[in-house]
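Hello,

Our lab assistant flagged a job as stuck in the queue for most of the afternoon. It eventually completed. Since we weren't sure the result was trustworthy after the delay, we are filing this so someone can double-check. Below is the sequence as submitted and the structure that was eventually returned. Let us know if re-running is recommended.
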Amino acid sequence: MAVFLADEQSDPVDTDDLLALARHVLGAMKVPEDMEVSLLLVDEPTIAALNAEHLGKSGPTDVLAFPIDAPGETVPDIPAILGDVVLCPAVATAQAPSFGRAPHDELRLLTVHGLLHLLGMDHAEPAEERAMFALTDELLASSRTRPSSPDDQGRDGSP
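-- returned structure --
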């Protein structure tokens, strides 16, 4: 599974950890190996513009998810792209204390949250919200307990 990351903002971020986390989540969710995902780290003006254009909301947000192909709904010989997760580290850093989390932990949570949106999960209804947040907690916990593997490096073109 190819996970790509583009860091187009200036806040310090442990991109290797986010890549490993994304791979862990996609593996745990049994996303087919031929699917691709992109993580994009952007500044507040960029995510605010995306939020306005795609959701009609003003101001910056923490994460946006743009699903493209659903697992199992791809055409042979054409790259399967699960979608893009756009994260704003500045917003994550600003809101982390209000949730009692460190900024990096908030960014990890938002990464999982965005990936679950790509996989079709939502939190519009209370039952959906409980299920999505419980799965987020489970995936974050299991990502911290698994040993690193050779697959954590190099599949996305990073060291």
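-- support follow-up --
The delay was a queue issue, not a problem with the job. The result is valid. The chain has one domain: 2-152. The two ends are 16 Å apart (CA to CA).
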